[in-house]
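Quick one:
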Amino acid sequence: MSEELDLENLVTFRLSRLSDTLERAASVAYGRDHELNLTAWRTLVILNGYEPTTVQDISRRSRIDKGWISRSVARLESRGLLARMPNGNDNRSVLLSLTDEGRRLVARIAPLSKQRHESLLSVLDESEREKFMRALDLIQRRVDQMMVEDEAGLAEWE
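Output:
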């Protein structure tokens, strides 16, 4: 007889639950005053650091589905927060950049984002913070490796 699976102690379940809770809390914080969900905020922040860039690059950097990013980009563009321009390197995509209004919005929200970050980590001392961030990096690298292994296994079945 196999052991019963304790869902609430699985790392994937706990991280998913935490991620969902953090996303809902951020959507409340950014949505209330700025009408942004977390995907839109992440899109703006990535653009702020890497513009001009493409939907594909934003998706890769954020690890958010390209479709979600595309919908977010459309809403941000309709609000005048970002602009599209032709991509001279690839006619199949466009380059995205923040507008002046988009830059001003990022500048207004960034302190709130930093404050929320510090508040979340305030329950940890400096040593715990370093270990926590290192643990997140290690888990991310391992899941990336697992995905490569799983994809290789799928290819063998085809």
